[in-house]
Amino acid sequence: MDYRDMKVLPDHKPDGTRPMGEATPGFWWTEEDETARAGRVSSTGRELAMQQQARKQLNLQHARLYGNYDIRSFDAATYSQNLVLMYDEKIALNVVAAVTDTLTSKIAKSKPKPSFQTNGASWAMQQKARNLDKFMRGVFYETKAYVAAPKCFQAACIFGTGAIKVFIDPNTKRLKLEHTFIDEIYVDDVDGKYGAPRQMLQKKLVQKDVLLATLGKGLDEQQRQRIINYGTPGEASTAMKPLSNMVEVWEAWHLPSSKTAGDGWHSIVVGDVELVGEKWTHDFFPFVFLRFSNRVLGFWGQGVAERLSGIQVEMNRLIRSVSEQLRRKGRGRIYAPYGSKIVPAQLTNGVADIVTYSGGVPPTIDNSNAVAPEEFNQIERLWQFAFQVIGISELSAAAKKPSGLDAAVALREFNDIESERFADLQGRWDQLFLDLAEICIELVSANGGRGYKQKLPNKRYIVELDWKDIDLQRDDFIMQMFPASSLPGTPAARYQRVKEMMQDGFIDKAVAQRLLDFPDIEAEENLGTAAIDDVSCVIGYILDDAEPHLELPDEFQNLELLVQQGTAALLYAKHHGAEEKRLDMLRELIKAASQAKVALEPQAPVPPPPAAGAPEGPPMPGGPMVPNVDINMPVQPAVPPIVAS
Predict the structure, then answer these.
(1) How close are the terminal C-alpha atoms of the chain, in Å?
(2) N or C, where is the chain less crowded by C-beta within 10 Å?
(3) Run of H or E residues at 365
(4) Which of 12-16, 18-22, 424-428, 486-490 has the highest mean pLDDT?
(5) 453 phi, psi to nearest 5 deg
(6) How far is CA 517 from the centre of its chain?
């Protein structure tokens, strides 16, 4: 349906496809009256649902392929009903599910983290960018982003497109993420031909009492009663109404045509009652979409289930053929002529069928193969080919390593080669979190974020960040994505890589312990990096806190590390816009640490002065003269390995 070329339709059709009195669909955001606007939103949603039955049927087919369950539909009353009740009608070898689960485990196990960077900004702006980085880590932790994202990835593999909704909870006024079932989102095909629609609708079933308690505070009694009496979609009869308290809610967004157009709108409606009606000033929908593979045209993506549907269908046919042949002939057959006096009752348990015939040939037993070997081979070839089409090795699906590949270096290279096949998909996975961070920042900023405080769990304490201390303009920073760890995932390969880095002098032992991050050495790792954490905190009090303060060192700290890290921090901060007050504190910290270090060093015993009249010592031995060395001349230090900060 192209809402830009909408024809005026009558209030109802003779065939009953539109109820009497239902509003004309399309251009709902131009209505001034709330009731008329709500009616148009509802009718537009139903019109889109009716015209996109082909996509809904395709999604239903792909859900059946993955779940190995012939669900009737996605409707409220039938989504849990199975069309086929017999287990022997289910898929025997579900390659769609095997490939999808393998991909989800392989790609969605990583937890990318957005990083915020400034360009030529002052030290204060750099500190805001660092705090924004911590702020988003706290948001991802609170909203369970790394729980919703794998579900979105799985949906992208099944249906082609997965979605996560980002919104401000009306009760708590906090950010919230929600994995959204893709079949409940509607986009006009013409509007979304180039992948950038201007309107979007979502249908969802919500408990009536929860809906009224959350969004029904501004309704009058008549409107509340209309929502209470609104029927639940999918009710088979009036007798089912007491069992259900759900209501169909439509939420619609129309993006503004330009920054100054003012025609953006957001509505939440039930029937002809508008619960929310407000201007929508953002140039994005509150959804983040992930597509397994982009189509040539259109908004929706293509998934694993669609790509492998032909292979799965052929495998099903072959497996049914093999099963039927084994059932008919797998027990063997006995051929006996008439008059051979064989007693069938003596052949117990139905071992084989008895075939009688005329002739003088003695009784024989047929032990030939029930199924041709080519059919078994074809099933195995199709199974392997399905993984090759998507780009997964069958060894990954079975959690096996190639035979003879035992060295950690070889395993690492093998995993890297396989990962190259999914570089594009991995990029979309990373972009998902960048888009999540972008929308979260925009929503917090647009909803009076100066009072928004975000907690971030740390190793030993909780850090609380206030948005008023961040509040960067969008043009002040850029976002980049860094993986949680670029090290290999398996323990052997990770250990090998960290060992190589330590042997080459790039990192020290404490950093190596942190990079290994083995659960069984967590306690030792905490003790091993305590000195590094202490130095990082002391320097952070000066450079990172809104109001810097200096903590003088004592003899229990790693003074040498404090001098080294403090000097590096001073040199960096001096050329990146840090205030002079912070630089002076760093200088004072370095001097105090140096003095404390010297004071703790053992002093060489001073020889007593020679007695009066004592002869002088022996003359210096001959040899080349030693040049005078200026003890104040700076000496170029060796490049130290990277230490944790």
Answers:
(1) 57
(2) C
(3) strand 364-366
(4) 424-428
(5) -115, 135
(6) 22
DSSP 166: E
Longest CA pairwise span in the chain (Å): 144
In sequence order, the β-bridge partners of residue 465 are 454
* pLDDT given for residue 401 in this prediction: 55
In a 13 Å sphere around the CA of 604, the CA atoms on its Cβ side amount to 3
Please provide the average confidence, as pLDDT, over all residues in the chain. 77
Task: Give the Cα separation of 166 and 263 in Å (integer).
Answer: 22
Element (H or E) spanning 334, and its range? Answer: strand 333-337
Q: Which long-range contacts (C-beta less than 8 Å, at least 24 apart) are formed by 24-28?
A: 25/1, 26/1, 27/3, 28/252, 28/254, 28/265, 28/267
Take residue 544 and report the two structure tokens written for it: 């990172």
Question: What percent of the chain is modeled with pLDDT above 70?
Answer: 68
Assessment of whether the complete model's pTM goes beyond 0.85: no
* Inter-residue contact 497 to 511 (CB < 8 Å): no
Q: What is the mean pLDDT of residues 367-385?
A: 83
187-246 pLDDT, tens digit per residue, is 999 999 999 999 999 999 998 988 998 888 888 888 888 888 886 555 444 444 555 688
Percent of the chain at pLDDT > 90 equals 27
Please give the Cα distance from 273 to 228 (Å, whole number). 11
How far is residue 252 from each of residues 42, 208, 494, measured CA to CA in Å? 9, 19, 48
Distance from C-alpha of 317 to C-alpha of 92, rounded to nearest angstrom: 11
Structure-token pair, residue 106: 């392989």
Residue 631, burial from CB neighbour count under 10 angstroms (0-12, 13-18, 19+): exposed
b or e along 463-498 (b: 16 or more beta carbons within 10 Å of the residue's beta carbon)?
Answer: eebbbeebbbeeeebebebeeeeebbeeeebbbbbb
3-state secondary structure 574-630: HCCCCCHHHHHHHHHHHHHHHHHHHHHCCCCCCCCCCCCCCCCCCCCCCCCCCCCCC
Beta-carbon-side half-sphere exposure of residue 168 (alpha carbons within 13 Å): 14
Q: Which two tokens stand for residue 21?
A: 């009195």
**Predicted local confidence at residue 133, as pLDDT:** 85
Q: Indicate the range of 3-17, 173-187, 241-255, 616-630 predicted with least confidence.
A: 3-17
Q: CB count, 10 Å around CB of 412?
A: 19
Q: 46-49: which pairs have CB atoms within 8 A and are 24 or more residues apart? A: 47/1, 48/1, 48/186, 48/187, 48/188, 48/201, 49/186, 49/203
Instruction: Note the pLDDT of residue 621.
Output: 55
Bridge partners (DSSP) of residue 116 are 479
